[in-house]
Each structure stands twice: as C-alpha cells, then as structure tokens.
Amino acid sequence: MSAANGERVGRKRRVGKVLVIALGALVVAASVAIIAYCDDNLHAEERIISRAFDAGYVEKQVTIGGATINYAEGPDNGVALLLVHGQGMEWEDYATVLPGLSARYHVFAVDCFGHGTSEHDPALYSCAVNGNELIAFAREVFDEPYVVSGHSSGGIIAAYVAANDSANVTACVLEDPPLFRVTPEEAQENAGTFAWYDGYTVTHSFLQQGDVTDYAAWYAAHSYLFGLFGGLQSMLAEQTAAWCAEHPDQHVVNAWVPRAWTRGMYFMDDYDPRFGETFYDGSWMAGIDQEAMLRAIACPVGYLKASTRYGEDGVLYAATTDEDAARVRGCLVDCAYAEIDSGHDIHAERPDAFIDAIEQAARGRNS
C-alpha cells in the first residue's frame, strides 16, 4: 500500500471513529432527554407539592356541621388567606404559589366537598352549601378578618363567601370563574363551552353507565380535549385505564404524554363525579342570583380572566366571553381587572400575576 493510500485509509478510520463517538453521544443524549421527559411527566406534580410542605404547610382536618373539611395550613406570617380550588382539583393544585404566599399570609387551602379527602356527599354539592360551610370554617379555624380567593368554580364560591361574610372578608380574588357561563343554559349558549363538553357531559355520561368504575379512565376515553388529538385519544385512554388498574390509590399520570395535557386528570382519583352532575343539571347554582351576589361584595376584588379563545368549532375554550367579563366588572363596586395571557389555571401558569393580584386586593388599592 502506498503512503498516500495509507493516509486515506487512516483518515477514513479516524472519521469513522468520530462518527461512531458522535452517534453514541447522540444516543446517550436522546436517552437522557427521554428519561428526563418521562420523569417530569410522572413526578413533577409531587415535587411541586413537596416544596409546599417544605415551606411549612401542614395538612389537617376539621368537622364543620357534621362534614369533614380537609385543608392545608401554612405558617402564620400575616393576614389569613382562604384558597378555594376549581372543579376536579384539590388544595395541592395551589402548590406552585403556596411557598410564595406563605411569606406574607396565613394560608388556609381547602379541599372542596366532593374533592380530595373532604366529605363526599351529594347533599353538600351546591355553591350555597359550600360557601356557607367555608364561612363557618373561617370562624371555627381562624376567626379573624381574611382574604378569600377562588379559582374557576371555586371563584364562584369565593364570590359567595365575600358577599355573605362581608363583615370579615377584607378582599377577594376571582381567578377565571365561569360567572354568567355556569348554568346549563349559559354553558350551552351558541356553540357551548369547553367545560360543558369536557366536564359536565362527561361526568353525566359516566354516571349513566356501570361498566367502567374509574372516572379517569372514562374521562380519557370520552374527553372533548383528547378528542382533538385524533387517533391519540384511544392510545391515551388505554394507557390511562391501565394506569388506574395498576395504581388504584394513586394520582393519575402518564409517562409519555406531556404533563400539560394530562394535568387535569391528576386528582381525578379523589374526585366525585356526582359533583360535576350538579353543573349538568343546574343544581349547583340553585337559589343564587349571580348579579345580586356580585353586587353584594363590598370589599376590593381582584378579577383575573384568562385570554378568551375559541375552538375551530366555535366552542368557547375560556371560562367566559369578553362580554361576560364586562358584566362581572359592572356588578362589582371595587374591582381591579386583568386579562392574563394564560390558560385557565392562572395560578399555575402565571404564579407571579396571581400573587400580585392577591397583594393588590389585600392592600385595598383597587379604587
């Protein structure tokens, strides 16, 4: 072999070694990325929740009027703050903001009835009952002036509490509540709302059958949201059913599907679908005039609305329309309004904006 040929062969071997090393590095990097992706989907929520406990939160229970209310209490670092989660969630849904809030407030984050380990009894599943029990909870557990904040359906409860405990509620934050879009008639106006198709009709159909006993498995197979994913829905439904069967006492996660897509299922193992039925049949808002309730709120109100979006089929993806939001603002005596570029869970997606709204309302600087 000539010297020139030998050099060419040597170069090829060196290039080959470099390519093998580069390919190996890519395989390792891809493997690490996949492991990190799956690990985040499986464990991110529990890590966020653990940081709340690290910040000093303690989970407790109290019996009010014969009904158990489960809640987490933070360190006593200021004014009492009552947090009311949205439908399908539980107190841990606030975990992203709990450490930050604990620096200035004495936080009490509750599980609503039908959620978490609070009482599961359909007789308690109305806004008025939930609201009255939380007013009694405030008097029993901390008995001092307080700020109340609620997300989604919890925002309607927070409005009820502020309207009916005006002597003690010093400020209120309404985080994307479906006011004027919550009754069955309102939720079906025009093309209908995302909550109607992805929530209330799904819980109703689940309760009409008896073959599937795990609501999360039923939801995955019948979700309006997952239906937008085309053929992926059947795969996701199969994976969810398998997870529920193998982990009957655990929150619902999926290693392969982005956490943002499946986060709404996380607490479904602790959710009573009969709670959702009260939104389907309208009994949730029984006896409540939404305008009158809002006009009765005398304290400063921070009102956060997620950006209004519609699907290609015309379904309202937001909790309310812009017109609904204007109607809410028109009913409130002292309101600071902000439309946030966010999904429905503003406190999780835009924690700084949520905490700022609490601060502004608590300082009474809306006027």
**Proportion of residues in extended strands:** 5-15%
Number of strands: 8
As a percent range, the share of helical residues equals 40-55%
Total count of helical runs of at least 4 residues:
15
* Unreliable residue stretches: none
Shape: globular
Task: Provide mean pLDDT, rounded.
Answer: 93
Q: What distance lies between the first and last C-alpha atoms, to the nearest angstrom?
A: 91 Å
Radius of gyration: 24 Å
Order of helices and strands: HEEEHEHEHEHHHHHHHHEHEHH
**Largest sheet, strands/sense/barrel:** 8 strands, mixed
**Strand order, biggest sheet?**
1-2-4-3-5-6-7-8
The helix-and-strand class reads alpha/beta
Describe the structure.
With 367 residues, this protein is α/β, with parallel strands linked by helices. Helix content is 48%, strand content 14%. An eight-stranded mixed β-sheet has the order 1-2-4-3-5-6-7-8, sandwiched between helices. The mean pLDDT is 93.
Question: In terms of topology, how is this protein built?
Answer:
Layout: H1 3-54, E1 58-64, E2 67-73, E3 79-84, H2 98-102, E4 105-110, H3 127-141, E5 146-151, H4 153-164, E6 169-175, H5 184-187, H6 194-207, H7 215-222, H8 224-227, H9 232-246, H10 259-262, H11 273-281, H12 290-295, E7 301-306, H13 322-331, E8 335-340, H14 346-349, H15 351-363
Parallel strand pairs: 3-4, 3-5, 5-6, 6-7, 7-8
Antiparallel strand pairs: 1-2, 2-4
Helix pairs in contact: 3-4, 6-7, 6-11, 7-9
